[in-house]
Amino acid sequence: MGVPGILLEVRGKTLRSHSGETDPSYLDAALRETHEELGIGAQNIEILGQIGPPEVNLRGNMVVHPFVGFVHAGPSRFDHNMADVDDEPLPSSLTSPARLRASLFRGNRPYWAIGVQDLVPNGMPNPALIEDLPKQQESHSLDDSEIGVGKYGNLEVWGLTGWYLYLLMKRLRLYR
C-alpha cells in the first residue's frame, strides 16, 4: 500500500466482450471498463497519461488506447470475483531477467513477454478461466492478447498488453 505498482488482471476470452459500448472519450471508456471489470471507481483513479500510440487489434474491430493511472485508496475495492488480479510493486520482479522472454510485437517490434505464473495464487488463475485463456501462437506476429498461456505453456503477459507494459517499463527506465 502506498507503493507504485502494476495492476495485472487475468481474464478469460469469454469474461466480457466489447459489445460496442460508447463513451464521450477513450478515457471515459477506459474508466468505465476499469469499474466494470475490477470494481475501481473513476473517483479513485488519477490519470497520468497515455503510454503509447493507439494500436488496432488484429481482428481490426477495435482500437486500443493505453492509459496509465494511479489508483488511490478509497471506498472502491477490487472485485476479486470478476477476475484474478495481482498488484505487483515497482521496481519489481517484473524486471528480473529470469522472467523475461524476448518476443516480437506484430512480427517486427522487439519487446519482453513477462512470465507471471508465480504471481497468481496456485500458479494459475481461477480454474473456471483456464480453459478460456488465450494461448500464444507460435507466430509472434499474431500476438493480440493480454495475459494468457505463453509460447512455452506458462502464464505470461504478451501481445498488445505485453507491448504496452514494455513501453511503460522503458519510460520508467526499468528496461533498457
From TrEMBL:
Gene3D superfamilies: Nucleoside Triphosphate Pyrophosphohydrolase. Keywords: Hydrolase, Magnesium, Manganese, Metal-binding. Its cofactor is Mg(2+); Mn(2+). One of its GO terms (molecular function) is coenzyme A diphosphatase activity. InterPro entries: CoAse (IPR045121), NUDIX_hydrolase-like_dom_sf (IPR015797). The keyword Magnesium applies. PANTHER family: MITOCHONDRIAL COENZYME A DIPHOSPHATASE NUDT8, NUDIX HYDROLASE. This is Nudix hydrolase. It comes from Lentinula edodes.
